[in-house]
Amino acid sequence: MNTLKDRRIAVVLFNLGGPDDQASVKPFLFNLFNDPAIIGLPGLFRTPLAKLISDRRETSAQANYAMMGGGSPLLPGTRKQAEALEAVLNARLAGDEVRVFIAMRYWHPLTEETAADVAVFGPDEIVLLPLYPQFSTTTTESSLKAWNAAYAGSGVSRAVCCYPSAAGWVEAQAEAIGAKLDEAGDGPVRVLFSAHGIPEKLVTGKGDPYQEQVETTVAAVVAAIEARRGPIDHALCYQSRV
C-alpha cells in the first residue's frame, strides 16, 4: 500500500474520438451509431441500423474529414492536453507518479484498450475526467459506463462530472474569442457558438441537461467577453443530426 505521498495516480481523459484517416471513417461511424446511448434500440435492430447509416454517410463524412487533412484532429489535440496536464500534475504532486491516459469512445485508443493500459500501470487512485464541459447521457454518461464495464484493475476511482461554467475554462474561451474579435476590427461580426446536437427527444422526453448546460456556457462566456469590451452580436447553433 502506497503512502499518501507515494501514490500512483492515473488520470483518464475521455473524448469522442475520430477517424485517423479516410479508411477509418466508416468503422468510426458504425461505432458511434451502434452505441445504445445514441440510438436507443435493442442490439438486434440497432446494429444493422448502425451499419446502414455508416454505409450511407461514409462518403459525405470522408469529404468533411478531407478538408481537415483526411482525418480528425481530435486525438493530436487531446494528446497535447494530456502531456501538458501530466507535466503540471507531476510538478505539483511531488513524490507521486501521475500518468494521464486517453480513452476515446468510438475510435482508437478505445476505452477497452486504455482500461488495459491503466490496469498495467497499477494505480492507487484514478481520476476520470470527461472532456465534455456539458453533461449528456450521450457523451459523459456513455463514456463512464463504457469505462466501468471495461476496467478491472486496481485503484479507487473518482469522476469529474460537468463544468459548463467553470471560471478558468470560461475565461480561456473568452480570451480566445476576444482575440479573434480584435483581429476582425471594427466591422460587423457575429460570434456563432456551435455545439454538437443530440436527439431532441433526449432533452424534451428524458431530461438530458445538455441543452441547458450549453446555454449556461454561452451565457457565461458572453458575460466574460462583454465585461471587457461591451455588447457583442452572438448566436447559439447546433451542428450534426442523428
CATH topology of the largest domain: Rossmann fold
Tell me, what's the shape? globular
**Largest sheet descriptor:** 4 strands, parallel
State the CATH architecture of the largest domain: 3-Layer(aba) Sandwich
Structural class: alpha/beta
Order the strands across the largest sheet as they lie in space.
2-1-3-4
List unreliable stretches of 5+ residues: none
In CATH's first tier, which class of the largest domain applies? Answer: Alpha Beta
| Helical segment count | 8
Helices and strands, in N-to-C order?
EHHHEHEHEHEHHE
Annotation, overall tally of beta strands: 6
Report on the structure:
The chain is an alpha/beta fold and 242 residues long. The chain has three domains: 8-16 and 72-159, Rossmann fold (3-Layer(aba) Sandwich); 22-66, no CATH class; 167-239, Rossmann fold. Helices cover 50% and strands 17% of the residues. The strands form two sheets. Strands 2-1-3-4 form a four-stranded parallel sheet, with helices on both faces. It has a two-stranded parallel ribbon with strand order 5-6. Helix 4 (111-121) crosses helix 5. The longest helix is centred in the N-terminal third of the chain and has 24 residues, at 43-66. The protein starts with 7 loop residues before the first strand and ends with a strand.
Could you list some keywords that capture this structure?
242 residues; alpha/beta; Rossmann fold; 3 domains; four-stranded parallel β-sheet; two-stranded parallel sheet; 8 helices; 6 strands; 50% helix; globular
